[in-house]
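User:
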Amino acid sequence: MNCRDHASEIAEHYDAIAALWDAEQKDSSYGTEALMRAITMCGMEHKRRNALDIGCGSGGRMVRLLEGHAFQVTGLDCSEKMLAIAHEQHPAGTWLHGDIIHWKTSERYDLILAWDSIFHVPFDKQEDVLNSICGMLKQDGILIYTIGDEIGEHVSDWHDRSFYYSSLGIEKNLDILSKNECHLRHLELDQFPLKHCIIIAKKM
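Assistant: Predicted structure:
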């Protein structure tokens, strides 16, 4: 399967569960503590700041938190139905339909969030995507994202659909960040014994 077919499959899955996903996440606080840590690292609260949410889905708790701390939010997602909900719920945001593997921008961001999203990227594209994301950060910009603490790829069933996941593992991710002058600021295995890892890095 090529990358575009892969993205289309992921989009189809999330289109199918968009309303259910949004309903499930409405009252959730999942990930907000970690995002607040990243926001605090940004500083400059008196300045207008911008944030990119990769795999933003329908928006919700993460976007509310960013907007509540004076960020202008741009969301990128491959699911048009998710984006339609995000646009309705967060009219101040900018909502873009696209695939992070191919998406390019000249914009640079104070904060980039990729919460439970880029682990859907094909294994052989993970390094390229992380390199690209690091290049979208401003100097002193903060990147917060999640990965699986396991090298390889697998498929798991969720909401009666088969979702693809992959990870380069923690050590390789840290190596890529370092090569892009993004210094580790926080790493947490937040769901132990499940293999789910939060990484926060700062562009120097």
